[in-house]
């Protein structure tokens, strides 16, 4: 969908989701210095994304080419259902050409910011300790809980500081 109003709506939704992700990160009670540094890096990256989307939104709202006015005029024409059905046919045509396109809700991308990495480590240790107590049983499957910490973040953190700096302390 390439219309201007949809682009504005998407930009506002993205900004709102990014703000919620920052709030989720800030609400986590972290004790490890390493995780605190990674959280600060993530927050900085999310703020950069908000700035980028805001600039894009500002360009759309300036409407130098008059696209928003043209779109509003086409919607407010004598028969608004003509515009609706023409857009609906465009959407149907797109899905007819691309039947296997998977659609993920945008919230799924930011769900990892709600999970505390320290709590998931505690759960893993508890499951492993229980498996050691019950020596005869197999090690249970540890559920994969996505957190905001990934291997790439760990690597960036290791390369950002030298050994003498002790992670910026």
Describe what is shown at a glance.
The protein has 169 residues and is an all-alpha fold. Helix content is 66%, strand content 0%.
Question: What does this entry look like structurally?
Answer:
- Its EC number is 6.5.1.1.
- The protein is mainly α.
- The protein is 66% helix and 0% strand.
- The radius of gyration is 24 Å and the shape is elongated.
- The model has no long low-confidence stretch (mean pLDDT 82).
Percentage of residues in strands: under 5%
The overall pLDDT, averaged over residues, is 82
Would you report the number of β strands?
0
Q: What would the principal axes of the Cα set say about the shape? A: elongated
Specify the helix fraction band.
Answer: 55-70%
The main pleated sheet reads as:
none
- Low-confidence runs (pLDDT<50, min 5 residues)? none
Termini separation: 48 Å
Order of helices and strands: HHHHHHH
Report the total helices: 7
Q: What is the C-alpha radius of gyration, as a whole number of Å?
A: 24 Å
Q: Report the structural category.
A: mainly alpha
Enzyme class: ligase
Keywords: Ligase
Organism: Coemansia aciculifera
EC number: 6.5.1.1
Which SSEs are present, and which pair or pack?
Blueprint (H helix, E strand, L loop, with lengths): L3 H23 L6 H30 L4 H9 L4 H18 L9 H4 L6 H17 L17 H10 L9
Helix pairs in contact: 1-2
List keywords for this structure.
169 residues; mainly alpha; 7 helices; elongated; EC 6.5.1.1; Pre-mRNA-splicing factor sap61; ligase
């Amino acid at each position: 969908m390439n219309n201007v109003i949809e682009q504005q709506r998407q930009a506002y939704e993205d900004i709102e989701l990014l703000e919620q992700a920052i709030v989720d990160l800030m609400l986590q009670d972290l004790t490890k210095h390493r995780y605190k540094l990674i959280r600060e890096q993530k927050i900085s990256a999310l703020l950069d994304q908000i700035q980028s989307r805001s600039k894009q939104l500002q360009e759309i709202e300036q409407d130098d080419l008059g696209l928003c006015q043209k779109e509003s005029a086409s919607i407010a024409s004598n028969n608004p259902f003509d515009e609706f059905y023409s857009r609906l046919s465009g959407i149907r045509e797109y899905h007819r050409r691309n039947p296997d396109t998977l659609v993920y809700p945008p919230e799924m991308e930011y769900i990892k910011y709600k999970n505390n990495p320290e709590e998931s480590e505690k759960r893993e240790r508890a499951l492993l300790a229980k498996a050691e107590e019950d020596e005869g049983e197999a090690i249970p499957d540890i559920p994969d809980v996505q957190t905001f910490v990934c291997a790439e973040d760990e690597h960036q953190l290791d390369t950002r500081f030298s050994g003498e700096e002790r992670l910026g302390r």
